[in-house]
Design a protein that fits this description.
Layout lengths: L17 E5 L5 E5 L4 E3 L9 E2 L8 E5 L5 E5 L4 E3 L9 E2 L15 H5 L8 E5 L4 H11 L4 E6 L2 H14 L5 E5 L5 H14 L5 E4 L17 H16 L9 E5 L16 H4 L8 H22 L6 E6 L13 H9 L7 H4 L1 H8 L9 E4 L2 E2 L9 H21 L1
Parallel strand pairs: 9-10, 9-12, 10-11, 12-13, 13-14, 14-15
Antiparallel strand pairs: 1-2, 2-3, 4-8, 5-6, 6-7, 15-16
Helix pairs in contact: 4-5, 5-7, 7-11
Bound molecules: NADP nicotinamide-adenine-dinucleotide phosphate (NAP).
Keywords: Apoptosis, Golgi apparatus, Lysosome, Oxidoreductase, Wnt signaling pathway
Organism: Chironomus riparius
Pfam families: adh_short (PF00106)
Length: 402
């Protein structure tokens, strides 16, 4: 085969007499039809590739009258003899993670060619901004979405809009108010009644720049909404997660400006009184907690094969996050044309949820759809353990009172 004539300069062009085929488990193999020779390596580049195990959404495999395999795109009503998964092949020989996407990548580019039928994503805060775009993108590729949101009216409107876009969308609103642990408990009980398994637990909901405000459980709101309730929900839903599940936690690059002391961490630091509260600093601290939680959870659930990732979606992305102060609204609006749009802002969440190359990995932080080194403090294992223990203690105290 070394002597085969190469007709074009395309790297992946096959020499004559060679055909590319896909096995049932998604590995591409190359067949020399003249010599009846089969191999996994590309005959010219020596690369090994695989494709998604499932056919892309809307595609069906069948056989024609001559017993030849054909692929039908049910949406576009067209058929082909070429396996449509071949358009989405990925190299796998290299055990290092390659950067395939960047800051401009849209969620749809990551999902292209995927079929998420039969899979379930639970997205907190899916009624607005990045969470909504995450739910929308996954749903458009067949994934069932649990909208874990508090505002029924707004969520129903958003779900209707998605159903107009995709009449086959599977969407389910289950109400949760993250300022209240009892609501979180009831929410988890309902989820467990309706579902046996969750593939993607996407902890996205958040608040930013709030005036000091206590929740009905008596905690500072940013701490409870962005960290504690998500921590609690994750544990409550543990039985629905297995080695095919990923927990994806939306943090922020602002974690780098956190001021949590390395140790000892106290309840007062996490849940400060009004005199010690500055909304920006509290947000940064709690976004650090998101990464610390991800790291500790990854460690605790390593033996279960569950992947846990934290991520930054983008800077000053125009969403409702700035709603709590006119000044933030002005800033977010002023920079809108220079920052990621929603489709780009959802892409790192989507990447962490579905990228095949992340299988078997856990305890990582991502930015722009690629691994990123988080702050030194977020890798402090003692701090992560301390946060876990304090979060448990605070939850137990609240539950005992109610
Ligand atoms: N936008 C950015 O530039 C940026 C940058 C870095 C990180 N992030 C992170 O990205 C995530 C998504 O934020 P976003 O920008 O998309 O903001 P957003 O548009 O304000 O969305 C936040 C979502 O969280 C929900 N939420 C807030 N409080 C809740 C509660 N008590 N119970 C249940 N749901 C609650 C909101 O629901 P309601 O509408 O009912 O309040 C909304 O659906 C957040 O974790 C944020 O920290 C955003």
């Amino acid at each position: 085969m070394d002597h085969c004539h190469v007709e074009t300069d395309s790297e992946d062009e096959l020499p004559s007499n060679w055909e590319e085929r896909v096995s049932a488990n998604g590995f591409i193999h190359y067949v020399n039809v003249e010599k009846n020779q089969i191999q996994l390596n590309h005959p010219r580049t020596n690369k090994m590739k695989r494709v998604p195990v499932e056919l892309p959404y809307n595609w069906k495999k069948t056989v024609d009258a001559d017993n030849k395999v054909i692929y039908i795109n049910e949406l576009e009503n067209r058929e082909t003899k070429t396996d449509p998964r071949l358009a989405f092949s990925q190299e796998f020989a290299n055990d290092k993670l390659r950067q395939r996407f960047d800051s401009s990548t849209k969620a749809v580019s990551i999902l292209y060619g995927k079929n998420l039928t039969g899979q379930v994503a639970l997205v907190t805060g899916a009624s607005s901004g990045i969470g909504y775009e995450t739910a929308r993108s996954l749903s458009n590729f067949g994934c069932e979405i649990i909208f874990a949101c508090r505002n029924e009216k707004v969520t129903n409107e958003k779900m209707k809009a998605l159903e107009v876009e995709n009449s086959r969308a599977k969407l389910n609103f289950i109400q949760v108010d993250l300022t209240n642990l009892k609501s979180c408990k009831e929410f988890c009980d309902k989820v467990k009644l309706q579902y046996q398994h969750i593939n993607y637990l996407i902890l996205n909901a958040g608040v930013f720049g709030l005036p000091y405000y206590l929740t009905s459980d008596g905690l500072e709101t940013t701490f409870q909404v962005c960290h504690l309730s998500h921590f609690y929900i994750t544990q409550q839903l543990s039985s629905l997660l297995n080695e095919n599940s990923r927990v994806v936690i939306v943090s922020s690059e602002s974690h780098r400006f956190a001021s949590l002391p390395a140790l000892p961490l106290t309840k007062e630091i996490l849940n400060p009184p009004p005199a010690k509260y500055w909304s920006m600093l509290q947000y940064n601290n709690i976004k650090l907690c998101n990464i610390l939680f991800a790291m500790e959870l990854a460690k605790k659930w390593q033996s279960r094969g569950i992947s846990v990732f934290a991520l930054h979606p983008g800077n000053l992305v125009s969403t409702n996050l700035s709603r709590h102060w006119w000044f933030y609204k002005v800033i977010f609006a002023a920079v809108k044309s220079f920052t990621k749009n929603l489709e780009q802002a959802a892409s790192t969440t989507i990447y962490c949820s579905i990228a095949d190359e992340l299988k078997g990995l856990s305890g990582l932080y991502f930015n722009n759809c690629y691994i990123c080194q988080p702050s030194k403090l977020s890798l402090n294992e003692n701090l992560a353990t301390e946060l876990w223990n304090l979060s448990d203690e605070i939850i137990n105290e609240i539950l005992q009172k109610t």
